[in-house]
Amino acid sequence: MLDVEKWMYQAFLEAEKAYRKNEVPVGAVIVYENKVVGRGYNLIETLQDPTAHAEMLAITAAANYLASWRLDSASLFVTLEPCAMCAGAILNSRISEVVFGAFDPRMGACGSTIDLLRDNYFNTFINIVPGIMQEKCESILKDFFEILRSKNNNNLTS
What does the DSSP assignment read for 38-72? Predict the structure, then answer.
């Protein structure tokens, strides 16, 4: 059994990196055999790439580290519920478990809006563990968007 809070904290450290770069603060780590084999944080604005989500970057890093696109028996820890694009990558990479912090009621594809990872249509089962360090993961997102809104409002009044 993995220490979910230990690994989620590692994902949160990645989210803080995104925050410092003025990116939406989402971070992810992939754990295989009790070791982080992939890390990522949102770099959408930095790279001007709509696919540069934390999960996508962590999956790529893990596949490179393990020299295999099959990440069976790996667990993904991510601070925000994955979207449909990331859920597709999770399915394709064969990750066996997704642990996330904050729910995403707008774009979440692990139960909030849709549940791609447990849909019987794909004939697969991915264990989902939601709400780990939820308050901390929500807090950094709320703080980021409050600052962003404040900047946008100040630009409108200048």
Answer: EEEE--HHHHT-TT--HHHHHHHHHHHHHT-S--T
- Cα–Cα distance measured from residue 57 to residue 42, given in angstroms and rounded to the nearest whole number: 8
DSSP β-ladder status, 97-102 and 127-129: parallel
Residue 155 binned pLDDT confidence (cut-offs 50, 70, 90)? low
Catalytic residue check, 55: yes
**Catalytic residue among 23, 55, 81, 97, which?**
55
Q: Measured in whole angstroms, how far is the alpha carbon of residue 93 from the centre of its chain?
A: 15
The β-bridge partners of 19 are none
pTM greater than 0.90: yes
Question: What are the pLDDT digits (tens) for 86-119?
Answer: 999 999 999 999 999 999 999 999 999 999 998 7
Which one, of 17, 132, 113, 119, lies nearest residue 75 by Cα? 132
Question: Residue 14: helix, strand or coil by DSSP?
Answer: helix
For the beta sheet containing 35-41, the strands, ordered from the edge strand earlier in sequence to the opposite edge, are 35-41, 27-32, 75-80, 97-102, 127-129
